[in-house]
Specification:
The chain has about 300 residues and is mainly alpha-helical. The protein has 14 helices and 5 strands.
């Protein structure tokens, strides 16, 4: 696991040459078909050499939850183990990792009516104002969720309005009641020691996405019947900002600047998650012989 642009795909592909690993993607955007450039989807050659499970399994009009991920990941983990190999979970969606290893609440299902009302409130008041409303009913969730993270604010408010119980209360209950599974997890974090270097990598990657046709990808997605900017897939970092540019609400330079700011905020949140993760071993992927150090660590865990 690790923040965006930390080199997780390259390290994972190298590890697959040294160990009997099969990769399972832990990425809430890569599950969607047609979202290749803006998600930094591994290229065709990488996927040919090291296939990734749980990529391209949903249409962008659909929703995909942490509960869906836990179910699908455990199915794939079982298949990999049955073949005599070892699952390697790779990605940056920390909530998915936490749900898989620590249990997940049986939350109320999505309610289109409640979501539509929350969206209407956001159009009128703005997401920071709804973040304050969330703080009134679930201060712990408000502390965890960025005031501009529309998707997570919406879900937390939806859970409360649908059940009368806060998201945090649901999660605490799940943590207390969750049964441990039979898997042992070796947790490795890729953390680049220099924040400036990480930010430079983020900007370089975004420039590459734009040069490779990211705007055209967003335009293609906009032409899909039934797909709107309100759906979870289009709230992914980059897609939201470039959709706004595609409909004339901001310039390309503004979309790029907003995407960079949002991506840096995402990386900051990911690093915060990692600091709270128990039994985690961190490596700087840019250090000399990092792959050897990670391999040696894993070899010890697998004995």
């Amino acid at each position: 696991m690790g923040p965006t642009a930390s080199g997780k795909t390259d390290i994972a592909a190298s590890l697959c040459k040294r160990f009997p690993f099969d990769i399972i993607s832990v990425d809430s955007a890569l599950v969607y078909r047609g979202m290749d450039i803006g998600t930094a989807r591994p290229d065709a050659e990488t996927l040919r050499r090291t296939p990734h499970r749980l990529i391209d399994i949903r249409d962008p009009e659909d929703t995909y939850s942490a509960g869906d991920f836990v179910r699908d990941a455990r199915i794939e983990m079982g298949r990999i183990a049955a073949a005599g190999r070892i699952p390697l979970l790779v990605g940056g969606t920390m909530m998915y990792f936490r749900a898989l290893t620590g249990g997940i609440a049986a939350l109320p299902t999505a309610d289109d009516r409640i979501r539509a009302q929350i969206d209407a409130d956001a159009d009128e008041l703005g997401w920071p104002a709804l973040h304050e409303k969330l703080r009134e009913v679930d201060p712990a969730a408000a502390d965890r969720i960025n005031r501009n993270d529309s998707q997570r604010i919406q879900r937390a408010l939806e859970v409360y309005r649908a059940s009368g119980k806060s998201l945090t209360a649901w999660q605490d209950e799940a943590s207390q009641n969750s049964a441990r599974d039979d898997w042992r997890y070796a947790k490795i974090a890729l953390q680049i020691s220099s924040r400036e270097v990480l930010h430079a990598r983020i900007e370089q990657r975004l420039d590459g996405m734009i040069n490779n046709g990211f705007l055209e990808e967003v335009q293609t997605l906009r032409r899909r019947p039934g797909l709107t900017r309100r759906q979870p897939s289009m709230r992914a970092v980059g897609y939201r900002q470039f959709w706004e540019h595609a409909v004339g609400e901001c310039s390309l330079d503004e979309a790029k600047a907003q995407t960079l700011a949002a991506t840096r905020q995402l990386a900051k949140r990911q690093l915060t998650w990692l600091r709270s993760e128990a039994e985690l071993t961190s490596f700087d992927p840019l250090e000399a012989c990092a792959i050897d150090a990670i391999s040696a660590h894993l070899a010890g865990k697998l004995l």
